[in-house]
Amino acid sequence: MRRRPPTTRTFSFSISARSRGGPTMQGDGSQWEVSDQTRLCRFLCYGSDQMTYATRDQAGPGMERVGSLLSMLQEGQGVLVVETIQKFAQEGQAVRVEPCIFALALCSQHSELKTRQAAFKALKEVCPRPAHLFSFIQYKKELKEDMKCGMWGRALRKAVSDWYSKQDALGLAAAVSTCKQRQGWSHQDLLRLSHTKPADEAIALICQYVTKEWKDVQVAYADRDNSDEVSKVLSYLEVVEKARHSCDETEVITLIEEHNLEREQLLTDHLKSKSVWRALLKEMPLQSALKILGKMTFKKVLQPGSSETEALCERIRSEAALKKAKVHPFSIQLAAENYKRGQGYEGKSKWEADADILKALDFAFYKSFFNVERVGKRFIVAVDVSTSLTSMVPGTSVSTAVAAALVAMVFARTEKGTRVLAYSEGALKPCAVSADMTLAQMTDNLIKIPGKSTDCTLPITWAIKKGTPADVFIILTNNALSPHSANPVATLKKHREKLRCQSKLVICGLTSGGGTLGDPGDKGVLNISGFDLGAFTVIRNFANNLV
């Protein structure tokens, strides 16, 4: 839920970086100070400039979370801020897109001309999709609503106009027909308010399609000598409109298959048809298909032994399809666990999982490890076995034991020299991880080790005694992130000193709802509350000194 910005909205801020960051380190520890740049990167990555990534954070970006950004703007670093926003948005370093959009909207409000110009110039790159553009405009409105100045100045009008005019025509036609409105804004609103002047005839056609009745557009272009590009766009829009107004199921299916239409381009009544869903599934992005396996089985779209089920299983097992979709092993395991669950989270829909689909998912899980981006660091992954590890990771159907085993496998298979440890109070055991080990075998290796109470210092102490250097310790615990009898951060500092390495620490509370453990002034410490796919991106960024 987005929070409304405070009523005072000028950029004459007086914010001290040290006043926000807690204790800072002096002498040899000065390299671990948390700078405004680090806090900004954290915000852009996961929506908070603090040391904790919360997987179930519902607050959304707001002014109370961007103190570091405001401080950098005040210090004349606005262009650097915009460049950082672009980097996170474009290079897949952001877990959540909304913080980048909010930050860009904030920069576009700044009093410095260069910062505003840089922000508007970056609009198309940071907001490539209509939904992103609508969010940007809404943030602008919220930031402006308590100011006396207007919102739709020349710079914003030009930036929005350029967003439409500089698109590929066919791509824009698909975008405006797939996502018509969001956040209370529509394409018609933005084209009218920005006074958009289309760059060419094809874009002009799309603008007319958005702002006028389709019949009027048809009449206007019926007797013209249209260019090839205009003809292609016109033909595509004719297909979209025909599908939207058709009551003939066979015709709709034909249009879907011949023109690769998406479900957002269809009517709700069309989506009541099993045959329409079968047509959509044929070319649906694999990531999207994995999320609706249960729904499609419940609706009898996917049935045991059917040609549709066989075709989907073939796609799931295809290395080429997995590479193209960049599916992560965690995504496949999450899809498999949700599917095996046999019912939706609200319990309204129930299904019996198909054995062939489960086999395909299991095959794809091990094949998908080539999609994991290698970090190139030395990792020690330590799993807390002080509890039974039988609870569930919040918001998922994945048990904490499976989640811990999966994390260990991901790093052991992709990062050379990764050490996996199981620990509890007074006991620690290295776990052998072979290339052919299954997830079930890895999980069994962890849960068979008896545990007592939690002591998060043990993995680091073990590394000190063994003289084992590590770039990143990842400690997975079932408990909430709260102070323990021994301080792992103090032990981490001993590891840095004794082994002369720049070791970092990630403490992940798999079932945690919040809280922190560590020194907020040490940029080498990160907390993760819960676990999801985004956590892998956060850990990668953290290991590479990006957050």
Write a brief caption for the model:
With 547 residues, the chain is α/β, with parallel strands linked by helices. It has helices at 17-20, 36-46, 67-74, 78-90, 97-107, 113-121, 123-126, 130-144, 154-165, 169-178, 187-194, 201-211, 214-222, 228-245, 249-259, 274-283, 286-291, 293-298, 307-317, 319-325, 329-341, 355-367, 400-414, 439-447, 458-466, 488-499, 533-543; strands at residues 52-54, 181-182, 185-186, 379-384, 419-424, 427-431, 472-477, 504-509, 525-529.
Describe the overall structure.
Helices cover 50% and strands 7% of the residues. The chain has 547 residues and is of the alpha/beta class. It folds into 3 domains: 17-220; 284-370; 375-543, Rossmann fold. The chain has a 7-stranded mixed beta sheet with strand order 1-9-8-7-4-5-6, sandwiched between helices. Strands 2-3 form a two-stranded antiparallel ribbon. α2 (36-46) crosses α5. The chain is flat and about 85 Å long. It starts with 16 loop residues before the first helix and ends with a helix.
Indicate the topology.
Blueprint: H1 17-20, H2 36-46, E1 52-54, H3 67-74, H4 78-90, H5 97-107, H6 113-121, H7 123-126, H8 130-144, H9 154-165, H10 169-178, E2 181-182, E3 185-186, H11 187-194, H12 201-211, H13 214-222, H14 228-245, H15 249-259, H16 274-283, H17 286-291, H18 293-298, H19 307-317, H20 319-325, H21 329-341, H22 355-367, E4 379-384, H23 400-414, E5 419-424, E6 427-431, H24 439-447, H25 458-466, E7 472-477, H26 488-499, E8 504-509, E9 525-529, H27 533-543
Helix pairs in contact: 2-3, 2-4, 2-5, 4-5, 4-6, 5-8, 9-11, 10-12, 10-14, 12-14, 14-15, 15-16, 19-22, 21-22, 23-24, 25-26
